[in-house]
Amino acid sequence: MRRIVIIPTYNEKENVERMTDTVMSLDYNFDLLFVDDGSPDGTANLVKGKQAQYEGRVHLIERSGKLGLGTAYIEGFRWALQNGYDQIFEMDCDFSHNPNDLLRLSDRLSDDAEVVVGSRYVRGVNVVNWPLSRLLMSYFASKYVRLITRMPVCDATAGFVGYRAEVLQRINLDNVQMIGYGFQIEMKYTAWRLGFNIVEESIIFVDREEGTSKMSGGIFGEAFFGVMELPFRSIK
């Protein structure tokens, strides 16, 4: 079983080394692929240092600028598929997602799930230290997605997700249109429309302690209006 975690980065110098060490220490072997969008704070150079420490397990794609979360993941997905990984995960670098939960997500992919979502809302609301306004926006965004698409997922905007390789092989990555956080919705919706089994595994989401959030009004707007188009879009 070959597992890889894809982590897009932009100015994550406070977190990237600790994240690498934490993932490398897990009971299961997870490789790491960082996709860095030209971080001016030197994030990529810190990753290169970890590549020397964990030879063959830490990988880096360097891009010239901020090209969007979705394009970073798609580039990472293609790289992971070309290199023969069986389980492919998305995760943030800021420890809002607990790396130890990768073990549970991997177990679900080995069992009944073809897509597994680290879900904040499948068992109540499991979010720590978010402002109430952002929590309400996130919670009701997932309610909105479910209303419009009928997709039975409680946390459609979640960014802690694992895929079996065959799911990403079936999805036409060239057709993915949303590049911000709407990308997370579009990927889950496409997998569901293709008939794959999506399972939600409850996690506790903790707001970042180091670095700054990349959320913006434009990102939210893309997701809001993009969801309206999903039921009418071809998935072939």
Question: Could you explain the architecture of this structure?
Answer:
This protein is an alpha/beta fold. It has a single domain (3-232), classed as Spore Coat Polysaccharide Biosynthesis Protein SpsA, Chain A (Alpha-Beta Complex), CATH 3.90.550.10. Helix content is 39%, strand content 17%. The chain is built from 8 helices and 9 strands. Helix 1 links the parallel strand 1 and strand 2. Helix 1 runs parallel beside helix 2 (43-53) and helix 7 (182-193) packs parallel to helix 8. The chain is globular, with a radius of gyration of 17 Å. The mean pLDDT is 91.
Number of helices: 8
- Rg over CA atoms, rounded to whole Å, is 17 Å
Query: What does the average pLDDT come to?
Result: 91
* Broad CATH class: Alpha Beta
Q: What proportion of the residues is helical, as a percent range?
A: 25-40%
CATH topology (fold) name: Spore Coat Polysaccharide Biosynthesis Protein SpsA, Chain A
DSSP strand tally: 9
Reading the helices and strands in chain order gives: EHEHEHEHEEHEHHEEH
Given the C-alpha coordinates, what overall shape results?
A: globular
Do you know the CATH architecture?
Alpha-Beta Complex
Oligomer: single chain
CATH superfamily: Spore Coat Polysaccharide Biosynthesis Protein SpsA, Chain A
- Total separate domains: 1
Q: List low-confidence stretches.
A: none
Strand content: 15-25%
Structural class: alpha/beta
Spatially, the strands of the biggest sheet line up as 3-2-1-4-7-5-8
| Gap between N and C termini | 29 Å
